[in-house]
Amino acid sequence: MANKVFTLLSLTGTVMAAKAAEPDASPLAIVIDPAMEVFAKGVASLGEVSGWVLNVPQSLADAAIWFIDLHLGMPALIKSVLTGDAATLDRLVDLSGTIAGIVFVVYVALCAINLFLATAESIRDHHSSWLTLPKASSVLGVKIPKEIADVLNAVRGPVQATLLDPVKRWKHKTIVPLEGGDGSTLDGTTSTVTSATSACLLLASAPAVLALIRDGASKGSAEALAWTLGTALGLKYVASRA
Q1: How far is Cα 2 from Cα 11, in angstroms, rounded to an integer?
Q2: Which helix (H) or strand (E) holds 138?
Q3: How many CA within 13 A on the CB side of residue 184?
Q4: In sequence order, what are the residues at sequence separation of 6 or more whose Cβ sits closer than 8 angstroms to the Cβ of residue 114?
Q5: CA-based nearest residue to 197, from 115, 110, 98, 107
Q6: pLDDT at 27
Q7: How far is CA 103 from the centre of its chain?
Q8: Cβ(181)–Cβ(165) under 8 Å?
Q9: How many CB atoms lie within 10 A of CB 209?
Q10: pLDDT in the model for residue 42
Q11: pTM of the complete model
């Protein structure tokens, strides 16, 4: 029994000594740990980019093969369209709807980005005085010794020139100017988005128009199509008046 107690006390003492021997966390960890995370992410990104580079030859080959197949299949496609092949016409009209969705999303996203950049610039201009560091001379009415003020002003100069002045001078540029208006203003965004919506609605209605042509007169289908086309044309009218 005494041996067991002695063994237990020995193990406890060993564990306590091991814990006491653990080094304290370095105060530099708050800088080193994030830096190591960035380094690890950079190494992982480098591996991914190198994979893209190695895949370039195969991607070029795939693109060339697709281009050749497209041109070889063009005569058959033209024949199918001219003979009114239903499957071919359905595939092409579905493509118009897909493209309409892509165009609409690209227009809206670019307009949003352009408007955001213009808004950020306007906010910057309104608060531009905050981007100029005052020269060190006094704090709360207490004059700072000249030696300390000179040191602070020596630091102020580079910070102002390298960090704040570029922000003050920054002018945003419109990303991919879009037809229908200037996406950097509210009026321009309204005009551009409504024009894009109108055009894309017309393109997206193509499958319904084709179905109505094939199936003949249908009051329900015609009314639904009229509502859609009417909305598209109404938006176009609004865009022209904006």
Answers
A1: 14
A2: strand 138-139
A3: 12
A4: 172, 174, 175, 183, 184, 189
A5: 107
A6: 58
A7: 16
A8: no
A9: 15
A10: 81
A11: 0.65
**Spatial separation of the C-alpha atoms in residues 164 and 143, rounded to whole Å:** 26
The answer to whether 195 and 158 have CB atoms below 8 angstroms apart is: no
Distance in angstroms (rounded) separating the CA atoms of residues 196 and 176: 15
Residue 143 phi, psi (nearest 5)? -70, 135
Q: Divide the 242 residues of the chain into consecutive groups of 10 and give the mean pLDDT of each group.
A: 48 50 57 78 83 87 89 88 89 91 91 88 86 75 75 82 84 72 73 86 89 82 86 81 66
- Element (H or E) spanning 139, and its range? strand 138-139
Burial (Cβ within 10 Å: 0-12, 13-18, ≥19) of residue 189: buried
Tell me the domain boundaries of the chain. Answer: 87-126+141-242
